Amino acid sequence: MVPLVPARPEFPGFEVDPSRVTLGERIGSGAFGLAYRATLTTDEESEDVVVKTVKDNASEEDKLSFLQEIRAVVDLGVQKNLLGLIGCCTVVRDHLYLITEFMPYGDLKGFLRKCQVSHIGVEGISDGPRDDIYNFEVMQMYQVGRQIARGMDHIARSRYIHGDLAARNVLVGEKLTVKISDFGLAEDIYSRGYRRQDHLQKVPWKWMAPERLQGGEAYTAQSDVWSFGIVLYEISTLGGDPYPDVAIAHLQERLQTGFRMSKPEGCPAGMYDLMLQCWRWQPAERPSFRTLELDLDKQLAFYGPEYATPTPCT
């Protein structure tokens, strides 16, 4: 029997009275959860936030999984390329909330596709978005990739795996700041060093490393590195879908025989080389996120020393 969600605060330092939260427009929906733009009111002011919660028909097991996601966000702490935790509500059973900062440009997948429209607009085919942030060129590809690598390095150093790294789970803010979100599949691997795939969990097949496609196999942070290579593909194609001509049923076999996606049009050779490194069959042969961050930094420096910003480990 699944234990009931506890009635006491799970995270006392972050607990927020749900009466201070006003839900607004629904901005996302998943298998078990919903996301809303919301307003959080304190004694002195109100701020725009995003609230993630479970659906009305969520089971006790779903609610416990949601609490585990909150735990992951709390454990990972503050890092500038992870979505910032503002608070949570865990006491009132009908108001299980994960409250995070609001990112005005939404998820990276949708953002990149708006950039694609903007590029078409330059050619006179479409008006496209007018905001300069949608002028997304090679330099911006590297800037975004480097930030994601930096955030993932923090996750890996914290002995966590993300488990669902994809452009749809990265959010975009002002000045092209990006932050990794959606830790629903994240897990602390300190005790074992690896995690086993849950067969009941919905999984993003085309973002998964081969060791995860082989049902039940153990996987590690190096499995997230494979997914990062897919994210670089999404970035360089302005939101393109991976393996557009490969059926999911054939994907594992094709990868095992050496198939890899070809270099996207307009993608720098250096970035494509990083993708291929991330897609090495053996997890131990893939680079670490720290190595990827430093490599992206070096490539970005090609555009000028002002873009090379070596950062201390966090």
UniProtKB/TrEMBL annotation:
Active-site annotation: 164
Membrane protein topology class: Single-pass type I membrane protein
Recorded catalytic activity of this chain's protein: L-tyrosyl-[protein] + ATP = O-phospho-L-tyrosyl-[protein] + ADP + H(+)
A molecular function GO annotation: ATP binding
Gene Ontology cellular component list: membrane
Major subcellular location class: membrane
Keyword Transcription regulation listed: no
Residue ranges of every copy of the Protein kinase domain listed in the record: 21-303
Subcellular location field: Membrane
Entries under InterPro entries matching the protein: Kinase-like_dom_sf, Prot_kinase_dom, Protein_kinase_ATP_BS, RTK, Ser-Thr/Tyr_kinase_cat_dom, Tyr_kinase_AS
Top-rank taxon, per record: Eukaryota
SUPFAM superfamilies xrefs: Protein kinase-like (PK-like)
Binding site for Mg(2+): 169, 182
Keywords: ATP-binding, Magnesium, Metal-binding, Nucleotide-binding
Residues annotated for ATP binding in this entry: 52, 101-107, 168
PROSITE patterns: PROTEIN_KINASE_ATP, PROTEIN_KINASE_DOM, PROTEIN_KINASE_TYR
Protein name: Protein kinase domain-containing protein
High-level lineage: Eukaryota, Metazoa, Chordata, Cephalochordata, Leptocardii
